[in-house]
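Write out the bound-state structure for S-adenosylmethionine.
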Amino acid sequence: MLKGQLPTAVSDITSRLVSFPGPSGLQVVGYIDEGAEDVWNERVVILAPRYGETKKNNLQLAYELVANGFKVLRFDQTNHIGESDGAMHAFTLSGATEDILAVVDYVDRFYEPSEVVLITLSLSSRCGFRACAQDSRISRFVSLVGMLDMDRTLRAIYNRDFFGELKAGATWSRVDILGFEIEGDKFYQSLVDSDMLNLSGTLIDSAQVSAPVLHLCAERDLWVEREDVDQVMSCCCNGRVVSIPSVGHELNENPESLKFAIQEVMAFCAEGLAGNSDALCVPDMKVLLRQNRLERSKLQASMDFSESESEFWGEYLGKFGIIEDAKYYVEYFDKMSALLGAIQPSDVLLDAGCGNGFYGISIIRALIRDSSVRGSLPQPIHYCAMDLTSHGLTRSYSRHTESLVEFQRQQLCDSGAVGFSYRKVDFDAVGGELGAALPFTDGSISKICCSLVLSYLKEPLNLMQEFYRVLKPGGVAVVSSMKPGCDMTVLYHDYVTQDVGGEGEQDASILLSAAGRIKLKKDTGVYQFFDVEELEHLAAQVGFMETRSCRSFGHQANVIRIVK
Ligand SMILES: C[S@@+](CC[C@H](N)C(=O)[O-])C[C@H]1O[C@@H](n2cnc3c(N)ncnc32)[C@H](O)[C@@H]1O
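---
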């Protein structure tokens, strides 16, 4: 493509639901994405979902491929989430491999393509190597941030030897792997029986793959060892490794890295095609977004999020406190406090969605610091914590009390000038035409901290509007959201790699499970992570003018500071 030339947007793309028999008679459900018949380049690309995701997560890549002449079949695995048959707890890697082989059969039978290209992501790459070793109809294989050693990866993520424990006789009817309960014993036994437990099996498979293989590895991947990748690829007779710069295992985290990866994939898929040029076409955004909306509402309707939000956050916060000393949290709360600015006499501070009360703790620390510098008692201030769950409020209260007592001890006084209060409020019932008001009069609050809360509300704009009402003129709010495509596992890496042992290990796995559930709710549109422009737009809609933004939290969260 010439410099400065815009890519052509293709709007003639359709998606058609198909289903066909997979392993053990289970139906596999997928979408055929295709453009006009006369632009088809005779190649079909199969997109296998990664663990814990559905065909919807592959929609963008599929449409990019279709815009450039390919037909795509993206499907849901059986015994997994999504529309295919079977229940997630029965998931195995050998079952997921059989799904791929069933899809190859289907594609071969109905389209008789000149080439079948397989693209797998993360854990499904392990199945991809097995499928390619068994079925030579797969003529090209892309392993995107492929996990090649199940045992090593799980140990890296959880800092726990799951399989060693099972080998030593532990029994797990159910085990939570990244937010999904699966039958641990059966999963393990199937890995052993199919030789998919560790790297040695992958090396054997890769030696049998005759198709060209492109392995794209992420430069900052915490979960896949580069030496494993190099070993596996050196066994392939026609393998190539490309490193994707400036990103970890979650490619969506960095749009530039994702773009780079898509271009590499596209070029590899198109190798050998007559008239192949590097003039990339793109799908028309309207067409892509329409299909995305359709699939999101279908997925939402099919998921069972039976626990209430209050139960969900209660359980989450119960485990969340343990990592408050992790590097990224400390940095993040320092930044939030710095953006809100030094506490002034008579400040009234609102911690909206206080969780375990981290912001309150940072206020008390600042007071201790200030008074030791100035040697005087603080001026009266008031901090008000609000949250949906009594769980979080109780934890906040007990932690704050401890710190406040310490503060008073240092001051040798009963510093009644510092008031802390707690209130249970459901922000989903606040603001808008029918909602209640926040329990403050207009212009009565000096500072608002709203850390990682808006994403979980049905109408975040309503709360933002209330913030504007209750803030004093010149008052400041700092509001944050995880960034779209963030990699939440990065945040826990710091914690799980500390040698915490015992209960700490269990807590880490519960945290990772909660992160998996948050991701699923985000993928289905129940939650929404905002980019900076979206946060700024929410703020501007209710009247905030002065806005500053930054990244924090291990680069995974967007933060804006707004002034009334
Ligand atoms: C990810 S936590 C963030 C907690 C805290 N602000 C922090 O940054 O550590 C999300 C918080 O939002 C709260 N929350 C979620 N939905 C809410 C709602 N509808 N009303 C009030 N709080 C809510 C949860 O209870 C939880 O404490």
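---
The pocket of S-adenosylmethionine is lined by residues 309, 313, 317, 353-355, 358, 387-389, 392, 425-428, 451-453, 456-457 (CB under 6 Å).
The chain has 18 helices and 19 strands.
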